[in-house]
């Protein structure tokens, strides 16, 4: 995975800030891995931060679907515990 440049980091931080100011009744989130002990995860740490903000600000119903991971490294960035769902 290629590291983010300064512009990419600013975009992730802006997305997190905006999402933390919003709330939603329902969240549909695609994840790369699902584990009973580790929870939901993705191979992209920046994506996980944005997804965490969405999970934290959803007030009612949260749904996850598992997508096929395209990374040989496998899922490494924790999104949420199953209890957060």
Features:
three-stranded antiparallel β-sheet; alpha+beta; two-stranded parallel ribbon; globular; 85 residues
Strand neighbour order, sheet with most strands = 2-3-5
Q: Could you give the distance between the termini?
A: 28 Å
Tally of helical segments: 2
% residues in beta strands: 25-35%
Mean pLDDT: 75
Shape: globular
- Got a strand count? 5
The ordered string of helix (H) and strand (E) elements is HEEEHEE
Biggest sheet descriptor: 3 strands, antiparallel
List the uncertain runs.
Answer: none
The radius of gyration computed from the alpha-carbon positions, rounded to a whole number of angstroms, is 13 Å
Proportion in helices: 25-40%
Structural class: alpha+beta
What does this protein look like?
The chain has a domain at 27-84. α1 (6-20) runs parallel beside α2. 32% of the residues lie in helices and 33% in strands. The protein has a three-stranded antiparallel β-sheet. A hairpin with a 3-residue loop joins β2 and β3 (39-42). The chain is globular. The termini are far apart. The chain contains two helices and five strands. The model has no long low-confidence stretch (mean pLDDT 75). The protein is of the alpha+beta class.
Describe what is shown at a glance.
The chain has 85 residues and is an alpha+beta fold.
Topology:
Layout: H1 6-20, E1 24-31, E2 33-35, E3 39-42, H2 45-56, E4 58-66, E5 77-80
Parallel strand pairs: 1-4
Antiparallel strand pairs: 2-3, 3-5
Helix pairs in contact: 1-2
